[in-house]
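Quick start: what a row looks like.
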Amino acid sequence: MDNNKFQRIGVTSNTHAGNDFESAARAFFAMQGVVLTKNFAVPVGVGETKKSHRFDLGSENPAVLVECKSHTWTQGGNMPSAKMTVWNEAMYYFHVAPASYRKIFFVLKHFRKEQSLAAYYLKTHGHLVPSDVELWEYDLESTAAERLR
């Protein structure tokens, strides 16, 4: 029996869950006519010094960067602080990415009680989301996405 309390129930591994979600995101955008490449690298940074950073998905034409997160609420109902830290890091990379790119944070729609994880993030950390970043929630069951911001 697996005793890893951080492993999502019902998936082979958290890595597999993330990869599957990224594939679903690519398929969703392909249906919108946008073909995205995995591990899309662009120069990021503040000032003159730039360093290559790989976003989960991206494209030069159209210029778009996508970060995918398939995080869910914690089993015990606690505030998912480690997940929020990862989301904050993604916002930083969007902030220092070239302004010419459309920036999309694409997350799994997952509810606890009446609130989705993405809505919770916007409520508690929305001030950290750069104004040019779109936040989308994706429902795996319906394969539909909704822009929250």
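That is the whole record. The mean pLDDT is 90. Strands lie at 37-44, 51-60, 63-69, 102-108, 111-112, 115-116, 133-139, 144-147.
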